[in-house]
Amino acid sequence: MSTAYGSTPTHDPALLTEALKDANTTPFWLDNPNRPEPRPALTEDINADLLIVGGGFCGLWTAIIAKERHPEWDVVVVEKRRIAWAASGRNGGFCESNLTHGDDNGKLHFPNELATIHKLADENFAELHRTITQYNIDAEWENTGVMVVATENHQVPWITNSNAQQLNPTDNHGHGNSPVYRAALFKKDGYSFVHPAKLAWGLAEAAEKLGVTIYENTEITDLKHNQTGATAHTPEGKITATKVALATNAFPSLLRHLRLFTLPVYDYAIVTEPLTNNQLKEIGWTQRNGITDSGKEFHYYRKTADNRILFGGWDAIYHRGRKITPRYDQRPETFRLLVDHLYTTFPSLKGTKITHAWGGVIDMSTQLVAFHGTTRNKTVAYSAGFTGLGLGATRFGAETMLDLLEGKETERTRLKMARRLPIPIPPEPIAYPLVQIMRRAVNKSDQNGGKDGLLLKLMGLFKIGFDS
User: Fold this and answer.
1) Quick one: a GO cellular component term (predicted)?
2) pLDDT tens column, 205-255
3) One domain for residues 302 and 230
4) What is the rounded CA–CA span in Å between residue 320 and residue 375?
């Protein structure tokens, strides 16, 4: 069956190679002359009321909320590399209120809690924006909404049967036109865009102004429980803390029993050179909204402040042994495919240069939704498995971890996502071949009019998903 996009490029290979020839391997968001200098590493033994392991969004939100709740607490954040180095500085900057990876997935896993989850999601999104405003964080926040498009005929009913605002795919008031669009809808509420690295840097600065201490380039090598809390060891010091919040997401948890509940999956993106107003008019994209398509293998794209297009998604790559390493941040075959798909989407941009191409790792869980909990006599909390939805949902994870550490019973802690773990992902040697089989099944479904084969149907019965 002929489809809009495929796993093999259709454009001249020389054209794709030329477009990528000078692409910077640094993520676009981090290629910034105003990137903060790294903070000092920990070189001594210290004490803390709350130790937060991980300086990404989840860890930074936890730090800020903890100090807002308890100004008297001594809060310490320890980051293995630099603030925004990992997913917080590599994502597409799509910030949405949804906590369940879409309503259909929410109905599958939390059918009796959806009303509460929706309410909490709206509150979380509002608080996220409040924090950005209150602390004057220049995150390039744009509340401009997202257009969701069908690129295959079988996807059209998914769009037209929605209660969201319908758009004419060929005349949609500047939200974006493409010969591959078959139907389109627009969602405004709960969909915003940010410069993710600037958000992370701003959150770190806000946390420090509240009295939080942040150490960068400091790896926690061991976490030992004791009578009064826990002690975390680093190469040159240790932190003795009353409470610990683990916010390492895709990276191996310090709690070994949690490592089978997430899978590190690599996602990739490219960014074009700045486009002119005439180029944007040619593709019918004069508004500032983002765009996503509707396949199981999907794309997401948006504009940057200087009118480049960030175009990402499609491939979700898992490496044998749950390995995470900087060399996996580059995958030339995926970059060529993304350029090919960009040119297919907007033919008038054929030949446009790519200035940045990079990848990053996502913490996928089988329920495609984050899970939260505590262990070691409720002195250690964790939040992980955001599955690419972390920009907004990590704040919710931070609130939930703090509720649990404080022993509070709240609407958040009563949710199933805070009371049970998802189905685990098998260890090697099973994980790698299983993921490859799942990827082929997902691709085949898209190529077969959206009809799931036996494997995906079976996985659905067991409420197991694969996504990025």
Assistant:
1) cytoplasm
2) 999 999 999 999 999 999 999 888 999 999 999 999 999 999 999 999 999
3) no
4) 29
